[in-house]
Amino acid sequence: MDNQYPELENKNAIIRMFHVTKRYGAQLALDDVSLDVEANEFLFLTGPSGAGKSTLLKLLYLADSISEGQILLKGMNLSRLPKKRLPFLRRNIGVVFQDYKLIPTRTVFDNIALVMEVAGASAKQIKRKVGYLLRTVDMEHKAGAFPQSLSGGEQQRVAVARAICGDPDIVLADEPTGSLDAESAKVIMELLFGIHARGATVMVATHDEALLHSTRRRIVTLKQGRVVDLGL
């Protein structure tokens, strides 16, 4: 597989995209995107609205399929992945959405615990791990609350805790601070930097210029579905 694409020879990459194109009917959302992301790298994905940032992340967390090209995640070819392997791969990917996507009928504790419940963890394991995460995101006092009673910043903290509950190797965040005030955004980014420090590979899609220039991380830029700067 790899020798078909000699321009990408990074053997340390946990994510490899080879000439990836995504079409929605006549609309070209991604156009010939090739990108390597190293294990334990933290990078930003940026570009104007409609550049393809969210589409690229959707392909990586298996919410959509590519039209052309290949994607390797942890050495697995997504186009050839047997259905029985999908749950395993998805458990290795944590996703943080701009609109949180918390389940309104479940408490904060239960929203975070869902990942472990699906994986078959025991009640004791869930209680210990979720308790730790609630303390980490400073939401222990809201464990029994429902999402609609929380502020946007609080909901995003819960969403981050849920994303990392299964100890994923890869965390993908789509505009995680886009609807938050400056202080809440700072907290969320500190949480993501902490996840990275513990060994996860983190990709953050954002168009926030202040955020992009507040830290020295690789910035990959998309424009009209094409990578115009790999940030190398």
Automatic annotation (TrEMBL):
Any keyword ATP-binding?
A: yes
SMART domains for this protein: AAA (SM00382)
What GO terms fall under cellular component here? Answer: plasma membrane
Keywords associated with the record: ATP-binding, Cell cycle, Cell division, Cell membrane, Membrane, Nucleotide-binding
Q: Which Pfam families match?
A: ABC_tran
Instruction: List the subcellular locations.
Output: Cell membrane
Which GO molecular function terms does the record list?
ATP binding; ATP hydrolysis activity; transmembrane transporter activity
Alphabetized InterPro entries for the sequence: AAA+_ATPase (IPR003593), ABC_transporter-like_ATP-bd (IPR003439), ABC_transporter-like_CS (IPR017871), ABC_transpr_LolD-like (IPR015854), Cell_div_FtsE (IPR005286), P-loop_NTPase (IPR027417)
Task: Give all residue intervals belonging to the ABC transporter domain.
Answer: 15-232
Q: How does it sit in the membrane?
A: Peripheral membrane protein
Subunit annotation: Homodimer. Forms a membrane-associated complex with FtsX.
Which NCBIfam families does this entry report, sorted A to Z?
FtsE
- The protein in question is named Cell division ATP-binding protein FtsE
Organism, by scientific name, is Desulfatibacillum aliphaticivorans
Which gene is the coding source of this polypeptide chain? ftsE
